[in-house]
Amino acid sequence: MKSYADEGWSLVVPLKPLARAKSRLAAAVGGGLRPRFALAFAEDTVAAALACGAVRDVVVVTDDPAASAALAALGARVLSDGPGAGLNAALAHGARAVRAGRPGARVAALNADLPALRPAELRRVLAVAGQFPRAFLADAAEIGTTFLSAGPGAELEPAFGGASRLRHLSSGAVEIRLAGVDSVRRDVDTGEDLAAALELGVGPRTAARWVRAAG
Length: 215
Fold this sequence. Notes:
There is one protein chain. The protein is an alpha/beta fold and about 220 residues long. The chain has helices spanning about 25-30, 35-50, 65-75, 85-100, 120-130, 165-170, 180-185, 190-200, 205-215; strands at about 10-15, 55-60, 75-80, 105-110, 135-140, 145-150, 175. The chain has a single domain (about 5-210), classed as Spore Coat Polysaccharide Biosynthesis Protein SpsA, Chain A (Alpha-Beta Complex), CATH 3.90.550. It contains 9 helices and 7 strands. Strands 3-2-1-4-6-5-7 form a 7-stranded mixed sheet, with helices on both faces.
């Protein structure tokens, strides 16, 4: 008998209003371009996630009208940030919405700022995550978190922000230690992060935005 878990993963992607997103990137790209880069990062992240064969759907939690329209056009389901109480509340809200329709769904939180994301690398992470009730992937700095999963019967319990790697470890989530998935770990907050993502190879929207900014 087919279970909900056989239908693939639902990913929840949170996104701040673009006017407030990626404040630390302003020094590298300028305050006027910062929201446009934030949107390009999210578009490339969502497009790559939807191209991953293990992903059933992507739910974006945001109150930004421009981002909502752009990400819905890519095929994401967009939810308003009903709680309005920050990142982790938005992620829990998205996970609840997924499981309202599919109670046994495999759910994962994914950062919106992974412009170099590769579908094949995400699939490898999801395959390992599926072996545990809850699992997470640390960011490239091994301080924060870019991915957190919850299998059927497990709550997501997100604790993102700052030194979230240690918080997720202490919550009982299993840390995924997997080589060759740099694109899933490379979130972008600063100019240095952006340079590293560009070196990995970013998606088309971020690449185009960078060319326009550099020109």
